[in-house]
From TrEMBL:
Domain TIR as annotated: residue spans: 794-939
Species this protein is from: Phoxinus phoxinus (Eurasian minnow)
Localization, UniProt: Membrane
Protein name: TIR domain-containing protein
Composition bias type Basic and acidic residues, residue spans: 948-963
Record's signal peptide: 1-24
C-alpha cells in the first residue's frame, strides 16, 4: 500500500510538472530565479494568507523554495506535497502561528528547513516525522514554550538545531528530545529563559557546539560528564552565573569557552576546573587593568606550563591603560590578541607587548584612541603581521608611527577621524599588502605618502575629503591592484596622477566631483585595468563629440557610469564606448540621456550585462540596430525609460539574452513577434507597465500564460490600467476573435460555394447574364422601353441574324424572295446606324422588327454576336410572350452539337423551324417554293394572340402542311428536335 501511494504521488507530481511546463510559465505569488533550471523559487511579500495557494503553481522540479515576508498564518497539511524534490525550504519572517502535523509530508529529500522569525508557540510531535534527511532545522525567533519528547525523534541526520530567541524554560525536556540525535553537532539555545541545565538524559556525543548565551542561568545543575564532549560552549550574558557552577565539571575537551558579562572569576575558574586557559575567551570578565592582566599572565605561566597560547580575547573589560611589559610574564601568544571594546586612550608604541615576540595579529578596535605617536625609537615587534585600529577617534597619525612593526602586511585605520597623516607616517612598511584608510577626514595625500609601500596591493581611501590627486602620488605602488578613491571630493586628477600603477586592475572613483574623463589619463592604465567605477560624478556632455575616453582600454571588463550629477550625462557622445572590446558589464542607470545612437554600443561585442534603468529623459525611442553587436548579452535592464514601443529590429541580434527587464515603462502593448529572435530568453519582467486589456494585447496574454520556456514574473498581479479591477492574465479576449472568426468562416464558405457554382453558372447562365447586361445597358439608355411600346409601328418586318460566311445565301436567296414580296428586312451591314454602339444597334434591330430570322449554320453557331442576337429574340419569345423568332437551318446539324446551345434547343422544342432544301432533294425547285411559302406565311403571322387562337392556328397550319405534303409528295415533320426530323423535300 505504501509503494502504491508513493507511486501515485510521484505520478501526480510528474503530471503537475508537465501541466505547468506545457501551459504556463508564470506564477501567482512566486518567481523562479533566472538560470536556476526550474530549481530555485522565491515567494516574497505575498498577500495570500494560504501558503498552499502561494506555492501551488511552483514546479515540482524545485529544490530551493523561499516563502518570506508574507501574511500566511497557518501551514496546512501536505502544503508541499507536489514538491518532493525540495532540499531547502525557507519560511522565515512570516506570521505563522500554527503548523499542521502533515505540513511537511513527502519532503523526503529536505535538508534545510528554516522557520525563523514567526509566531509558532507549539509544534505537534509528528510535524517533522517525514524529514528523515533533514540536516538543519532553524526555529529561532518564535514563541516556543516547550517541546514534545518525540518532536525531533525521526531527525536522525540532523546536524544543526537553532532554537534561539524563544521562551524555552525546561532544559531537561529539550535534552530528552535530542538525546537520540546521533548526528547533532550544533545546538543554539541563546536568548531563552533557561535557569538551569538540570537534565534527565545525556547530550548526544556528537554535539560539539552549545550556545546558551543571554539566558537566566544561575547554576548549571548538571552531571560531571554532561559537557565532556562539547568543544565550543557559550555562557555569555548570564549575569548571575558564577564560577561555582563549573566546579567538578569535566571541561577538558573545551576549545572555546565564552563567559562574557557573567559573574565568573577567571582566576577561580582556572583554579577549580580542568578547562584549558588558552580555550577561554577572557572578554567581559572584569580584567580592568594591567595588574589584573599581569596576575592572569603569572597564573598561566606557572600553573599550566603552556609555552604557547594561540589566541587571547580581552574584549569588553573596560581596560583604560596598559603598562609597559604588561604581558611580559604571559606565555607567548602566537595567533591573535583582541583588546577591542575597551576604554583605552593610548597604546603608546605597543610597549605592553614587549616579550611577545610571536604575536601575529592585534586588534584595538572600538577604543578611545585619538593619536598614533611616532615609534621610530622603540623596540620592534617583528612578528606582528596584522594591526587594526578601526572604530576609534584617531585624529592624527605621526611620522614613523609604525616603525616598530616593520613586517605588517595588513593595517586597518578606517572608521576614525584622521584629518592629518604625516608624510612619513607609513614609512618602513615595505611588506604591507592591505592598507585601509577609508571613512576618515583626510584632505590630501602626497607623492611620498606611500613611498615605501612597494608591496601594497590594496589601498582604500574611500569616504575622505580628498579634492585633488597630485602627480606621482602612487608612483611607487607598482604592485597595487585595487585603488579605492570613491566618496571623496575629487575634482581634478593631475596628468601624472596614476603614473607607476603598473598592476592596477580595479579603480574606484565613484561619488566624486569629476566633470570629464581624460583618455590620456586613463589610457596609461590600459594594459591592466579591468574595473572602473565612475558613478555619481559630474560628467556631462552638452555638445556632440566623436572621441572616446576609453579608446585604449581594451582589457576593461566592468564600467560604472551611473547617476551623474546634477542631471545625468545628458548627451552621450557618438563613439563614447569605442575601444571597450572586452567589456562585460556596463552600468548607465539614473542618467538623463536624450537619446542613444544606433552605433552607441557597436564596439561592446563581449558585453554580458547592461543596465539603462532611469537613463532617459521623457519618452525614449530605442533605434533599430542599437544592440546589433551584443550577441553575448545575457542580462538587459531597460526599466523606467519611458519606452512606448520599439521595432522588431531593436532586439534582433540579442540571441544570447536570458533576462530582460522592461519594468515601469509606458508600453501599453507588446507585439510578441518582436521577441522571436531571442531564442535563449528565459525571463522577461514587465511589471508596472500600463498594459492595456484590449485586443492589441490578446496575443500577448495568450503567450504569457502558455509559453513553456519563458518566465513572466508576477503576471497574476498585473492589473488593467484601462479596466480598473481587472487583471491582465484573464481579461476577456473572445470579442477580439469573434468577428475575425466569423469573417473568415463566411469568406471561406462563400469562396467554396463560388468555386463550386461558377463552372456550372458559366455553362448554364453565361448568355443569360451577358444578355441581361446588354439589355440593362440598352434599358438604361431608355431605348428598349421606347421600342417595346411601339409594336404596331415596326420599322422592319424582320431582322435577319446571320454570319458573314452565309452572306451569299442571304443576298442571293433570302433578300430577293422576301423583299421582292414587299417585306422590309433589316440587315446589319446595310441598316445598322453608323457610329452607334453595336449592342445598341442589335437591340434596336430586334425590337424594331416584327420578327427575327436566324439563319443557322455551323458558322452561325460559332459567332458570339449571332448568339447574342438569338438570345435577345428568344427573350421576347419566352419572357414577353412575343412570337418573333424564326429559325432557318441552312445545313443539317447533329444533336450533340446543338446540346450546348440550351436556349436554341428550347426554342426548337417549342417552335417549328425550317430546313433549307439541300442538293439531295429529288425536286429542289418545288421544295424551295414550299420553303419560301412557309417562311412568308410565318412572317405575316401576328406576334401576339390568346392561347386558344394560337392553338387553333397551329392545328390549321398542321392540316395545311399535311395537305401540301400529300399533293406534292413532300412530307413535313413538326416533331421536336429530339427526334432529329427536319422539313425535307424529296
Amino acid at each position: 500500500m505504501a509503494d502504491s501511494a508513493c507511486r501515485e504521488l510521484i505520478l501526480k507530481a510528474v503530471f503537475i510538472c508537465l501541466l505547468k511546463l506545457a501551459f504556463s510559465y508564470s506564477f501567482r505569488s512566486c518567481i523562479e530565479i533566472p538560470d536556476s533550471n526550474h530549481k530555485t523559487f522565491r515567494c516574497i511579500k505575498c498577500h495570500e494568507p494560504d501558503i498552499t495557494t502561494i506555492v501551488q503553481d511552483v514546479f515540482p522540479t524545485a529544490t530551493n523554495l523561499t516563502v518570506s515576508r508574507s501574511n500566511t498564518t497557518f501551514v496546512q497539511g501536505r502544503s508541499f506535497d507536489h514538491l518532493s524534490n525540495l532540499t531547502c525550504l525557507v519560511l522565515d519572517v512570516n506570521h505563522i502561528v500554527e503548523i499542521h502535523k502533515d505540513a511537511f509530508n513527502n519532503l523526503h529529500q529536505l535538508q534545510i528547513l528554516n522557520l525563523s522569525c514567526n509566531r509558532v508557540s507549539s509544534l505537534h510531535r509528528d510535524v517533522f516525522s517525514d524529514l528523515h534527511n533533514l540536516t538543519q532545522l532553524l526555529l529561532g525567533s518564535n514563541k516556543l514554550n516547550n517541546t514534545d519528547m518525540f518532536l525531533f525523534s525521526k531527525l536522525t541526520n540532523l546536524q544543526i538545531l537553532n532554537l534561539r530567541r524563544n521562551n524555552l524554560k525546561n532544559f531537561s525536556a529539550l535534552v530528552e528530545c535530542i538525546a537520540n540525535l546521533s548526528s547533532l553537532i550544533k545546538l543554539d539555545l541563546s536568548f531563552n529563559n533557561l535557569t538551569t541545565l538540570h537534565h534527565s538524559h545525556r547530550l548526544p556525543e556528537s554535539l560539539a557546539r552549545l550556545y546558551l548565551s543571554n539566558n537566566k542561568l544561575y547554576k548549571l545543575g548538571c552531571d560531571k560528564s554532561f559537557l565532556m564532549y562539547v568543544k565550543v560552549l557559550d555562557f555569555s550574558d548570564n549575569k548571575k552565573l558564577s564560577f561555582e557552577a563549573f566546579q567538578g565539571l569535566n571541561l577538558e575537551n573545551i576549545t572555546y569557552l565564552r563567559l562574557r558579562f557573567t559573574n565568573v572569576s577567571a582566576s577561580k575558574l582556572l583554579t577549580h576546573t580542568n578547562v584549558r586557559p588558552w580555550s577561554i575567551d577572557f572578554s567581559g570578565l572584569k580584567l580592568k587593568d594591567s595588574r589584573a592582566l599581569s596576575s592572569l599572565c603569572f597564573f598561566l605561566q606557572h600553573h599550566h606550563k603552556k609555552q604557547h597560547i594561540p589566541k587571547m580575547f580581552l574584549k569588553g573589560n573596560s581596560i583604560r591603560a596598559l603598562k609597559n611589559n604588561t604581558f611580559y610574564h604571559c606565555p607567548n601568544f602566537t595567533g591573535v590578541m583582541d583588546l577591542s571594546r575597551n576604554e583605552m586612550k593610548t597604546t603608546g608604541c605597543l610597549q605592553f607587548l614587549h616579550g611577545q615576540n610571536q604575536l601575529e595579529s592585534l586588534k584595538l578596535e572600538h577604543n578611545h584612541l585619538t593619536k598614533l605617536m611616532s615609534c621610530n625609537k622603540t623596540k620592534n615587534l617583528y612578528s606582528l603581521r596584522s594591526l587594526s585600529y578601526r572604530y576609534n577617534r584617531i585624529l592624527q597619525v605621526s611620522g614613523f608611527a609604525f616603525s616598530n612593526t616593520p613586517k605588517l602586511t595588513n593595517l586597518e585605520l578606517n572608521i576614525n577621524i584622521i584629518a592629518y597623516m604625516d608624510h612619513k607616517a607609513l614609512s618602513g612598511l615595505k611588506d604591507l599588502v592591505t592598507l585601509r584608510l577609508d571613512n576618515n577626514l583626510l584632505t590630501d595625500v602626497y607623492n611620498d605618502s606611500f613611498k615605501d609601500l612597494t608591496s601594497l596591493k590594496t589601498l582604500n581611501l574611500r569616504n575622505n575629503q580628498i579634492a585633488v590627486i597630485f602627480n606621482y602620488t602612487f608612483h611607487s605602488l607598482s604592485n597595487l591592484s585595487i585603488l579605492d578613491l570613491g566618496g571623496n571630493k575629487i575634482t581634478q586628477l593631475k596628468p601624472h596622477a596614476f603614473d607607476g600603477l603598473h598592476s592596477l586592475a580595479n579603480l574606484y572613483l565613484d561619488r566624486n566631483r569629476l566633470n570629464m574623463i581624460d583618455s590620456s589619463l586613463f589610457g596609461k592604465l590600459h594594459a591592466t585595468l579591468q574595473v572602473l567605477d565612475l558613478q555619481d560624478n559630474h560628467i556631462r556632455y552638452l555638445k556632440e563629440h566623436t572621441y572616446s575616453p576609453f579608446i585604449n582600454m581594451s582589457r576593461l571588463l566592468d564600467l560604472k557610469l551611473d547617476a551623474q550629477k546634477p542631471n545625468g550625462i545628458y548627451l552621450l557622445p557618438r563613439a563614447f564606448f569605442r575601444g571597450l572590446t572586452s567589456l562585460k558589464s556596463l552600468y548607465l542607470t539614473n542618467n538623463h540621456i536624450i537619446g542613444f545612437g544606433d552605433e552607441t554600443f557597436d564596439d561592446l561585442k563581449n558585453l554580458e550585462f547592461l543596465t539603462l534603468v532611469d537613463s532617459c529623459v521623457g519618452i525614449a525611442q530605442l533605434k533599430p540596430g542599437i544592440f546589433k553587436n551584443l550577441r553575448k548579452l545575457k542580462m538587459l535592464f531597460v526599466e523606467n525609460m519611458g519606452i512606448k514601443s520599439f521595432s522588431k529590429e531593436v532586439f534582433g541580434n540579442l540571441t544570447g539574452l536570458k533576462t530582460l527587464h522592461l519594468n515601469r515603462n509606458a508600453m501599453m502593448s507588446l507585439d510578441i513577434s518582436l521577441l522571436d529572435n531571442l531564442t535563449n530568453l528565459t525571463y522577461i519582467d514587465m511589471r508596472s507597465c500600463p498594459l492595456s486589456c484590449g485586443c492589441q494585447n490578446s496575443d500577448l496574454q495568450n503567450w504569457t500564460v502558455s509559453n513553456k520556456r519563458l518566465q513572466f514574473p508576477y503576471l497574476y498581479n498585473i492589473t488593467c490600467q484601462d479596466h480598473p479591477g481587472s487583471y491582465f492574465h484573464n481579461f476577456d479576449t473572445n470579442v477580439c476573435y469573434l468577428d475575425i472568426e466569423l469573417y473568415l468562416y463566411s469568406l471561406t464558405f462563400t469562396f467554396t460555394i463560388l468555386l463550386t457554382l461558377i463552372p456550372f453558372l458559366y455553362v448554364r447562365l453565361y448568355w443569360k447574364f451577358k444578355y441581361g447586361y446588354y439589355v440593362f445597358r440598352s434599358w438604361f439608355g431608355e431605348q428598349w422601353r421606347r421600342l417595346r411600346d411601339q409594336e404596331e409601328n415596326y420599322k422592319y418586318d424582320a431582322f435577319v441574324s446571320y454570319n458573314s460566311a452565309d452572306e451569299d445565301w442571304v443576298m442571293e436567296q433570302l433578300l430577293p424572295n422576301l423583299e421582292g414580296s414587299s417585306f422590309r428586312l433589316c440587315l446589319h451591314h446595310r441598316d445598322f446606324e453608323l457610329g452607334r454602339d453595336i449592342v445598341d444597334n442589335i437591340v434596336a434591330a430586334v425590337y424594331g422588327s416584327r420578327k427575327t430570322i436566324c439563319v443557322v449554320s455551323q458558322s452561325f453557331l460559332r459567332s458570339e454576336w449571332c448568339s447574342l442576337e438569338i438570345q435577345l429574340a428568344s427573350y421576347r419569345l419566352f419572357q414577353e410572350m412575343q412570337d418573333v423568332l424564326l429559325l432557318v437551318f441552312l445545313e443539317p446539324i447533329p444533336k450533340r452539337q446543338l446540346s450546348t446551345y440550351h436556349r436554341m434547343r428550347k426554342v426548337m422544342l417549342k417552335k417549328t423551324y425550317l430546313q433549307w432544301p439541300g442538293l439531295n432533294c429529288s425536286d429542289p425547285s418545288s421544295a424551295k417554293e414550299l420553303f419560301w411559302n412557309q417562311l412568308k406565311r410565318a412572317l405575316r403571322s401576328s406576334n401576339t394572340g390568346s392561347q386558344e387562337e394560337q392553338k387553333m392556328k397551329e392545328e390549321n397550319d398542321q392540316k395545311r402542311q399535311e395537305k401540301d405534303m400529300e399533293e406534292t409528295e413532300y412530307f413535313v415533320n413538326q416533331t421536336p428536335i429530339d427526334e432529329e426530323v427536319y422539313y425535307l423535300i424529296p
